[in-house]
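Hello,

I think I submitted the zinc ion job twice by accident. Can you confirm which output corresponds to this input? Input:
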Amino acid sequence: MKPQYDLVIRGGTVATAADLFACDIAIAGGKVVALGPDLPSGTEEINAAGLLVLPGGIDSHVHLDQYQGEGIVMADGFETGSRSAAAGGNTCIVPYALQRKGQSLREAVADYHAKADGNSLLDYGFHLIISDPTAAVLGQELPALIADGYTSVKIFMTYDDLVLKDREILEVLSIARQYGAMVMIHAEGYDQIKFLTDKLEQAGKTAPYYHAEARPQLVEREATHRAIAHAELVDVPVMIVHVSGKEAMEQIEWARARGIKVYAETCPQYLVLTADHLKGLNMDHSGAKYVCSPPPRDHASQEAIWRGIVNGTFQTFSSDHCPFRYEDAAGKSSPKGRTSFRWVPNGIPGVAARMPILFSEGVAKGRISLQRFVELTSTNHAKLFGMYPAKGTIAIGSDADITLWDPDKKVTMTQSLMHHGSDYTPYEGLEVTGWPVTTILRGEVIFDHGHPVMPKGFGRFISRGLAGAVAGAS
Ligand code: URP
Ligand code: ZN
Ligand code: ZN
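Support: Only one job matched these inputs. Its output is below.
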């Protein structure tokens, strides 16, 4: 007789955002169908003794194949980016579909579908980056796209090609409120950055390190406060993304104390890198490998971020994977980028490193519980971006998206383990404890012991619902 289950994962310790228990998991038709001890056998069996059995990681802040302007090319498209994510224990990613100025939002979405179709190893949705909020975009395209499952947008308070005026931000927030979309905000002040950049260049301070001096915490703090004030005015929840230190956190905590619904995300670079990394070897160009925005800060900021991870200031921990090649004229070493930090493409790779860094620095070092780890790396992403409970947990009826995790494995992070398109990892040499062993998407092993198992294209587009409730933000 054919076994009743396609796959049984046996003998592991299951961790969800709420619980920690020993049990077997039975999977049929890509879904979890039974949880319990001594389940009948499946067509396939995996022995998970000694391993943690976690909901597959969800990284809700990933940039893949995103348009970067003339001459600059991102190092990962959907094939290598999703492969790298799978190597790091993820089963789902939410990259961005970027609207270029003058472009219709629908056209932008169609472009990114064309890039992802048949290439993604992981399931994926899209956030919409709105750079040109015309009447047609706000009045027709955005409401229709929200209804079609593109239920989150990102807007920018800086970058020449992306920055929105305050009035435009308010208009986007109003539409989000009307239709229930989640708005992610990149909070850094455009004019302050331009002012500081000009002054630094005039003083001959053009090395990559000065990227950090051009974007001090004050710039992030002011924009975070302004974004929150806009959200309060419109009365709509917002998420402040890639929070780098104490000053922006204080604004978020202040807002929450007033009952304003503000969610917050942080990233691995703010835990294990500092602005000193941008100095490279004696202020040479190699600091460009660490140029991202906001920039990594200092050790006091790292401690502040830990406080927010522990006490609930942050709901999500994402990679902000935004990969470029270093030894490449279309990447970090473009001819213009060599003349000034102003032109170095912003962003670093990290989708494979995200979960191991938080597990090692957080769980293995006793700072956070396993349940909080799951919440920060999977469950809250699914809830906030309308994928829960199909994604983000291990429960009967959920997609069988599961990562088998060796909590004791000691690994030195290195480029060859990242499986990405970039030619370096900013986390080279970092020693971690805990590593993903097997990544399972909808009941199929997609990445196992350092190797992709399923071909590209196994991932499916997810039409997402509206945000659900998450503990932590008022
Ligand atoms: O430097 C960064 N973070 N680049 C990616 C784009 C963004 O702002 O998230
Ligand atoms: Zn951003
Ligand atoms: Zn980003």
